[in-house]
Amino acid sequence: xxxxxxxxxxxxxxxxxxxxxxxxxxxxxxxxxxxxxxxxxxxxxxxxxxxxxxxxxxxxxxxxxxxxxxxxxxxxxxxxxxxxxxxxxxxxxxxxxxxxxxxxxxxxxxxxxxxxxxxxxxxxxxxxxxxxxxxxxxxxxxxxxxxxxxxxxxxxxxxxxxxxxxxxxxxxxxxxxxxxxxxxxxxxxxxxxxxxxxxxxxxxxxxxxxxxxxxxxxxxxxxxxxxxxxxxxxxxxxxxxxxxxxxxxxxxxxxxxxxxxxxxxxxxx
Length: 269
Prior knowledge:
Layout: E1 2-3, E2 19-24, H1 34-50, H2 57-63, H3 67-72, E3 81-84, E4 91-94, H4 107-110, H5 118-139, H6 141-165, E5 174-175, H7 178-191, E6 196-201, E7 205-210, H8 211-226, H9 240-257, H10 260-267
Antiparallel strand pairs: 1-5, 2-6, 3-4, 6-7
């Protein structure tokens, strides 16, 4: 999930890692992950047709999750601003917060299907493609859909309340599927800690690494970035609280959604 600042252009969470997961061991997968495919397609179609490849800022600003709106249950509309590029001197009009034609609480849902750019979309969909199918295989289609949407909205609330508690700007919109995907990662590390994940190291060679290490390191970096030790301060434009909150929610809730037979078999891995 990224936060969208009116003081700047869009800040993109493109998962700029030198260690990039590119696949995992799916030899024991029992079902076709139809829901996971549909979620990926839905995110792509929303970006292309609804957001007009990210160019329709009015749509993005209207349907992003805004902490002030969630906390007060009131729609907030602000004026446009003229921004000046410090390098070129070019002036660009950035729309203000737009009227939200749905109940503002539902933006926790709509924001999950919007992205700030191709890199943001591509990074999120890669992670969902790799890790989501296994969770759908464990839960079944309907349980997985409910798990994904519920955890995504709870991750969004994590960002909302952290923004309030840390006294940050409550009018900065946030959008992206990262919170829900972080929940998928939390569920994955709970159910499949020893499963092999293939990672691309420094974009040169590929190594098989246990999921506990790959996903565990990802979570540690989210925490460190969220604390600002690696440049994750508010100015970074990344909603780390949504990543951390989503991961914890997914890790804790996955057992409630997992059928008993799958929970037993996963302990034997």
